Amino acid sequence: MKWTAEKLAAEVGAVCSLPTIYFRLNELVNDVHVSNKDVGALISEDAGLSVRLLRMVNSAFFGLPSSVDTITRAVTVIGTRQLNDLVLMTSVVDMFDGIPNEVANMELFWQHSIATGVSARVLANYHREPNVERFFVAGLLHDIGRLVIFQKLPEETTEILTLINEIEIPLYVAEKQVLGFDHTDVGRAMLDQWGLPEHLVTAVGGHHHPSALEEIDVDSAIVHVADVIANVLGMGWATEVYVPELDEAAWKRLDLPPSILSPAVEQIKRQYDDAIELIFSDKALNSSAA
Amino acid sequence: MAIVNLEDLKPGMVLVSDAVLLNGRTLLRAGAELTDKNIKMFSSWGLTEANIEGIEETSVKSDAMQHLDDELLAQAELKVGEMFKFTNTEFPPITELYRICIREHAEKLVEASHNEMDG
Hints:
The complex is a heterodimer of chains A (290) and B (119). Chain A is an all-alpha fold and 290 residues long. Chain A has helices at 5-15, 20-29, 36-45, 47-57, 71-78, 80-97, 106-126, 133-141, 144-152, 154-166, 171-179, 183-193, 198-205, 218-232, 248-254, 261-289. Helix content of chain A is 69%, strand content 0%. In chain A, α2 packs antiparallel against α3 (36-45) and α9 crosses α12 (183-193). The longest helix of chain A has 29 residues, at 261-289. Chain B has two domains: 2-59, Molybdopterin biosynthesis moea protein, domain 2, CATH 3.90.105.10; 67-118. Chain B is 47% helix and 11% strand. Chain B has helices at residues 36-45, 57-61, 70-83, 92-118, and strands spanning 2-5, 19-20, 26-28, 49-52. In chain B, the strands form two sheets. Chain B has a two-stranded antiparallel ribbon with strand order 1-4. Chain B has a two-stranded antiparallel sheet with strand order 2-3. Chain B is globular and about 45 Å long. The interface between A and B is medium-sized, with 25 and 26 residues.
């Protein structure tokens, strides 16, 4: 059977899907007639989710001055869109959690995903984006295509890894040579299959070569730069020993001076520790509940 | 003149151009001589760089790393040079990331050598 990115995504999508509450929430958030109270009411229907969200909101990662003890209050303080992105984050945590460690070193995979998410969040802040959590989630998801390839095509994965050891080429180039497509194609197809918002689909699909896009959007540009920074800082597994090339057009799209990088890296290092703690304790909470 | 990062700014340095935040707000006019207070204010407003008179780019770049041992720095540079071999290190944001990466590696090496001495 000849695989395509879409076939892979369809196969994984058939057994692995996002919870309906995410989509119901998404609908509410995009409806101008809906109040914060309605959003709070919907989330409160799911007690497990409510507990997880409150823990997240009260973690060091958010660094709020006072504690938030109800979902209604969380909606007011964090905002409906951001909360919706956090719900997506919990779903992603659950999905990744189902993959056995033999398939890939999941701990290192997590670390790289979190480092990219945090870097994207910090860059979004410098870019004065109103909702930075959306960039955190995009960074968290950016390599999801790699997981799919690892899980569904173990033989081809070995072939790809041998290839990058023999000749020094970036992983995504090796993927393309062996499979005819790479993990960004699979990631795009996967997110499309799940019906996730367009900005996420584009950012995950375009994170290796954003200048190949007709017009570079902020999401793709930020996730691309964030991925490079996560590699520079050597946080977690990236499979690449080498720092990937920084797309000049993507950097220019952000219109930021290079001097923000040094303070940004300090913020990333701090937030990274907080995010690791947040996500790993959320995973633990979730597995003990299951 | 050269663009100097916040961490390398020192009292007595003179601004060549206005110190402007990303949102367009001007904090200090060109020609001003920096004081300790100015630099603290820059930091609290999130200004990341300033254009300074009479400084060569290279002399500032190494300033933040001056407390590091030459041998450690050379070790870090070797490792980082390999990591960056597929990038264009002439591209300003990569030049900056390269510098940051060397600093990070050198600091890790310093930490490791301290641990060795303690152990």
